[in-house]
Amino acid sequence: MTFSSSPLHPDVVCRGDVLKALSSSEPFDMVVVGGGIHGAAAARLAAGLGFRVALLEKADYAAATSSRSSKMAHGGLRYLELFDFEQVFEGIKAREEMFERIGHLVKPADFLIPVPKHAWWFRTKLSIGLSLYDLLVKRGARRHRWIPRRKLNYPGFHADRANLMGCFLYTDGIMSDARVVFENILGARRYGAYCLNYCEVTSVQRDENDLMTLFVRDCKGAREFSVRAKVVLNCAGPWASSVAQSLGAEGHSLKFSRGSHIIFNTKWTGPSLFLPMPGKARYYFVWPHPAGTLVGTTEREVSGLELDPVPSGDEIEEILSRLQKDIPDAGLTRENAVYCFAGIRTLPTRGKSSSSSVLSRKHVWTQSHGIINLFGGKYTTASWTALEGVKAAAKYLGREITNRGLKTRPDLKELPGSMRGAEESLVRERLAYEGISTGDQERLVGRYGRRLMQQGICSGTSGNVERIVEEEVSLALQVEQAESLEDVLRRRLELEYTEDHGERYMRIIREVFSRLRPDIDFDKELSMYRERMKRVSHILGKPALR
User: Fold this and answer.
1) CA-CA distance, 389 to 85, in Å (whole number)?
2) How many angstroms from the chain centroid is the CA of residue 99?
3) I want to staple 544 with a disulfide (CB 3.0 to 4.6 A). Which of 189, 416, 438, 534 is the partner?
């Protein structure tokens, strides 16, 4: 497949050209295996520091855990109950950095924690935890405060809730998880990295100089090729242990936890909610989502790994029953549920095995003959975790990365869409001039940031939503390396989460696929997509859309 360059899309990528570059005789300094948040961040950092980098992902970028998270950038308030203070403080510092550096993708949000009547110990414990949370908060307005019952005036929690003592109000972050990954991938490519999805590393061979040849299967072209590497960063998420073993390194003992979520078409207008569940350090959240309201997460230890895990029926019932008990008048019922999804958390075990609900989220790095493996990891601190891996890889290659040197490179903390307040105002002015509604401005700025101007996504659309969607699909296929209808609707445009799952735009999407990717059987893709949406409806206990 070949794309011609376009003034609207300066980052157009040709899969054939990337495949050719990957299989060239010149070895890469680092090959990153895994295109989730940790692999994408590592590739961008390494390429930005001048290393010759390749990234290979066996499915789509962010296809697994990195698009199935709770979509929060947070310190992890519940970890305080497990006395995991290091994790919490690292999370808060990283979250504050994300607010500052990639504010178009990660935004502060108020969270409300209700305290039942007479629950004095719970209130005291929360007060201490939130005070610790506040130690690293940069802005005073984001520090927590107590709201007594008589002053409550929020959806579901108001002055006449007789079973309440009051609520704590604090700040955490809400983000578009998949979009953070895509911008890291684009940033890596802009620094010179070669990144390709749907390419699976199957085995490795070493020569007498310890240079590795990775054998790779192109899952889209049904061909095999090889990539030469001096060092490999294994960031394969739940599959990291099996990838390590296939590369001749030791795996690590892991546990896996499935977290499930439901999206409702009800618009959430109040603060987000942090609500306790039975069990130690167990909570669930209710917070706004572009499609309405997002609620989750559950905690189920699982043994098997699936690329496309789905919630179980009892998880759906657990969420619905908790909502009915905690906020019965919020309108979050089965009738208003439109989508559900599940993600797998990877938890490295340490010493005595524990339940997945109380295992630390702290990651583990291991190293063996040029294979550097990441086990576990938390989304919010992914850029810091990735830097640890890149430093280890650089040391193996005989180069030191110093914190002092990193301070001279503030660009390494920003993504292609990053922008400051004045620049955001300029972008919004331009969108308003183009006739874009306020709601669509919010969605587009929150998805692309300054890339809206760089890649002309909305130029000449006159605010026409169908023409904007057409531009977005074109961008997904030409720039963001989408290879299927699911890639576009689920992770690029996130229309899959909406009530009609993007059906209203299917004619336009078909036209763009026909023009830009005639090699893809769109009818087959559409049939598979609709079958999957029927499955989602079935899991929710609802009739499928026609």
Assistant:
1) 22
2) 15
3) 534
